[in-house]
Design brief:
Rna Polymerase Sigma Factor, Chain: A, 2 domains, Arc Repressor Mutant, subunit A, mainly alpha, about 190 residues, elongated, single chain
Length: about 190
């Protein structure tokens, strides 16, 4: 196939049929995904992806039927992606639930300024770190306390840890690179020797 060959353009009738069915297409998608904004996104993406194929269609009826098949496939793809993402978050939440706590002396070896630096994070990050990491509350229990799903709580723990890691690296420099063992930090952040 010649890469310079033009893709055939759809006939005005085919375009009119698809545009004329916009509301029906949107209703079809919204019923299957349960969210109007998401349905609009999927419909827009399907229109964009389908443009290349539209030129090969001749009749209005076949264009509409063909586009419903495109939409069904788009819904299936959406649910597969969402399911895979949900499984990954659930696995991460389960991993956090069974995480091994460090020994007391190892925990004491961590830089004193880490606790103070956690207080400089966004309030929800500071709170999740305090409850899960310091108070030892499970991610599931924290999720119940916060009124969020376990998956959202797991994501919040992950993001809070990342934000804290960056804050410690900014404040402590090379001390943080070596795990803050034998730390010479003073009472406040930014005082690593």
């Amino acid at each position: 196939m010649d890469s310079n060959a033009e893709t055939p353009r759809p006939s005005p009738e085919v375009v009119a049929a698809l545009v004329g069915n916009h509301r029906e297409f949107l209703a079809f998608l919204q019923k299957r995904v349960g969210d109007r904004a998401l349905a609009e996104d999927i419909l827009q993406e399907a229109f964009v992806r389908g443009l290349d194929k539209l030129g090969t269609l001749e009749q209005e009826e076949s264009a509409t039927g063909w586009f419903y098949r495109v939409l069904r496939n788009a819904v299936i793809d959406h649910h597969r992606r969402r399911s895979a993402s949900s499984r990954k978050l659930e696995a991460f939440a389960a991993e956090l639930e069974h995480e091994v706590k460090p020994e007391a002396d190892l925990q004491e070896a961590v830089c004193r300024c880490v606790g103070q630096l956690a207080g400089t994070l966004k309030p929800e990050y500071s709170e999740v770190l305090r409850r899960v990491e310091l108070d030892g509350v499970s991610v599931k229990d924290y999720a119940n306390e916060a009124g969020i799903t376990s998956n959202n709580a797991a994501v919040r723990v992950f993001r809070a840890r990342e934000a804290l890691r960056k804050q410690v690296a900014r404040s402590c420099g090379t001390c943080a690179e070596h795990g803050c063992f034998n730390c010479t930090c003073q009472a406040g952040p930014g005082h690593c020797a």
